[in-house]
């Protein structure tokens, strides 16, 4: 397919479908914001891949191929370097990209590797192909108009290799054939070297005066190439499809759609031939599965170009209120007239029989009074519940905690243990027990909500743990009333006993406790 026909096909595929037989609603032709695609993206190439019948491989298919070594229906396409700075590379299906390239080459698959950085890739030959990563430029003087695009030295055309006599193979149709492609533009490409032992045939090179940008040394016309390919495995001779390109910018959007002086480049035609070359060579069947890796990332969306360039749906037409207003007025008048003819309002209040002005009005008033009573009751309940704080509890009873019953019931709360356990709020006895404890150890005369300063001796291994336990007990004794559940008290009661034992061993005391009056002899009501 020629480049003009390919461009026409691309335009038709991206054109939105419209209903020509229907009138356009108001506002349909409003201009939409322009949508553009990135110059450095691969949207157009992915569209060509999808158009060629290749579908992205799912995770299950990746694992199945790696286990059964069935690569004959697989196309592996790698753009850019797949190694990170730390030497890590993605592993789709549980194996690295380099293994995918090697296995697809060996077991009858298809491989395209395009990279302009330093990389060593094995296609199954005795030696791997070396992607040098050294940038190549073509100085403008003496090059000729057809070699330089837009008079820019970093954008140059690749030079197709001359087909040797007797050389056969579909790889020579990529740049040659009935219509050669001398306008495949590159952008600061690298070079392919070490091709003699790799099994790949050079298909395109550089102009005679091309040179490396850093060293200004001329590029070798025999050992350095730009595009290389093969249609059989270098060692086993099994049919496969292999392509190596020293610049993946050849397949980017900016180069596929570039033009000079109104004349398009050959990159789009070359990309289309590349897809056809990769899908063929598998007997009578075309390859249908594809693994596409761009800069180390597996890409699985091949139809993004259609979604990106498809215009958004038209806005909903705005109603013409001037034309709609008379219709709304007529509809309202008809409804009011029907209500008046049927005497709807009078019958709803009085009833169907005017001689018995009974149940309807009475029922209506009963419903209104019932609703008013319910509203008043709910208002009172909300007011009562809103005025009472959830922590408003009764004060602890005077006299401290009650003595245990004669029966020897478990716990320290006496006769109210069952009731408190049912309520799951042990604040009253817990507060009494904690206040009794602090009265025993000599608390300050006017306790506040915060724990006073405490001196802890050096013999205590974990002073902060003891200090935190005292804070918790002080919060229960003199802090803001808050529910104390049975689980909470089960954790506080051992702390109470340990703190009392530590005080008896003179491991802690309140600061200046000797200057305070003895509060242990005061009554519980004063405490």
TrEMBL record:
Origin species: Urbifossiella limnaea
Origin: domain of life: Bacteria
Keywords: Signal
Signal peptide per UniProt: 1-21
Name assigned to this protein: DUF4350 domain-containing protein
Stretches for region Disordered: 392-411
């Amino acid at each position: 397919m020629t480049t003009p026909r390919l461009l026409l096909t691309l335009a038709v595929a991206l054109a939105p479908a419209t209903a020509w037989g229907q009138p356009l609603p108001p506002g349909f032709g409003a201009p939409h914001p322009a949508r553009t695609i990135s110059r450095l993206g691969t949207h157009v190439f992915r569209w060509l891949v999808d158009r060629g019948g290749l579908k992205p491989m799912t995770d299950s298919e990746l694992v199945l191929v790696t286990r059964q070594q069935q690569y004959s229906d697989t196309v592996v396409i790698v753009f850019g370097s797949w190694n990170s700075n730390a030497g890590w590379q993605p592993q789709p299906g549980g194996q690295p990209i380099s293994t995918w390239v090697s296995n697809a080459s060996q077991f009858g698959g298809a491989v395209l590797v395009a990279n302009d950085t330093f990389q060593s890739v094995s296609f199954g030959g005795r030696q791997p192909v070396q992607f040098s990563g050294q940038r190549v430029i073509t100085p403008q003087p003496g090059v000729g108009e057809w070699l330089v695009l837009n008079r820019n030295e970093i954008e140059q055309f690749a030079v197709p290799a001359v087909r040797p006599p007797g050389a056969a193979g579909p790889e020579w149709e990529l740049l040659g054939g009935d219509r050669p492609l001398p306008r495949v533009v590159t952008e600061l490409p690298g070079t392919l070297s070490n091709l003699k032992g790799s099994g790949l045939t050079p298909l395109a090179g550089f102009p005679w005066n091309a040179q490396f940008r850093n060293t200004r040394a001329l590029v070798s016309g025999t050992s350095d190439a730009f595009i290389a390919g093969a249609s059989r495995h270098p060692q086993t001779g099994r049919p496969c499809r292999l392509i190596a390109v020293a610049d993946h910018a050849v397949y980017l959007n900016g180069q596929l759609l570039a033009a000079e002086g109104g004349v398009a480049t050959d990159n789009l035609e070359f990309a289309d031939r590349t897809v056809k070359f990769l899908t063929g060579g598998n007997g009578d069947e075309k390859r249908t599965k594809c693994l596409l890796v761009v800069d180390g990332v597996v890409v699985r969306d091949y139809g993004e170009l259609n979604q990106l360039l498809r215009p958004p749906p038209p806005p909903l037409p705005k109603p013409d209120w001037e034309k709609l207003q008379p219709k709304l007025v007529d509809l309202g008048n008809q409804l009011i007239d029907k209500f008046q003819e049927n005497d709807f309002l009078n019958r709803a209040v009085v009833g169907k029989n005017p001689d018995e002005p009974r149940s309807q009005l009475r029922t209506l008033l009963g419903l209104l009074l019932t609703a008013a009573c319910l509203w008043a009751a709910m208002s009172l309940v909300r007011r009562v519940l809103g005025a009472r704080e959830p922590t408003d509890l009764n004060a602890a009873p005077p006299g401290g905690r009650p003595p245990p019953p004669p029966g020897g019931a478990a716990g320290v709360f006496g006769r109210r243990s069952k009731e408190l356990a049912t309520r799951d709020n042990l604040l009253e006895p817990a507060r009494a027990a904690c206040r009794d404890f602090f009265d025993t150890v000599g608390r300050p005369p006017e306790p506040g909500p915060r724990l006073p300063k405490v001196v802890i001796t050096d013999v205590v291994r974990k002073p902060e743990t003891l200090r935190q336990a005292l804070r918790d007990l002080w919060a229960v004794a003199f802090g803001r009333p808050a529910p104390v559940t049975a689980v909470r008290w089960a954790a506080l009661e051992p702390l109470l006993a340990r703190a009392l034992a530590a005080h008896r061993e003179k491991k802690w005391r309140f600061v200046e406790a000797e200057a305070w009056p003895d509060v242990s002899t005061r009554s519980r009501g004063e405490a």
